[in-house]
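User: Can you model how iron/sulfur cluster sits in this protein?
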Amino acid sequence: MLACQIVALSGTSSVISACGFPSIKNYLKGGFIMPVKGWIEVNDLYCKGCELCITACPVDVIQLDSSRLTSKGYHPAMLKSDEGCTGCGICAVICPDAAITVFREPKKKKVATA
Ligand code: SF4
Ligand code: SF4
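Assistant: Here's the modeled complex, given as structure tokens:
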């Protein structure tokens, strides 16, 4: 089911490119067709609740989880719901602590009908 796992490294897009994901530059130029669905996982060990991912997400689907604290005392980032994330990877690129892993569903192929 998973098409690509994007491992974020601070301030780089090279890892994303290495797994076949287009660069942010191409994304902004419109050279990228958005996937159907994506989702993120946030590593509590690294997240410090800085909210940069929340600000950067183009579809506003990330929030801090005010119901719990990490072992370091931060409210960690989380998806607001199962819907809306496109798997674009911007949050993973912007996160200074490499706390976000992005997953995408593969695009569904059109099935020919008679
Ligand atoms: S996931 Fe990264 S960018 Fe988002 S709040 Fe946590 S540390 Fe900040
Ligand atoms: S992958 Fe893109 S759409 Fe999904 S949460 Fe991150 S920035 Fe938002």
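A couple of observations from the model: The longest strand covers residues 38-42. Strands lie at 4-7, 38-42, 62-64, 77-79, 100-104.
User: Helpful, thanks.
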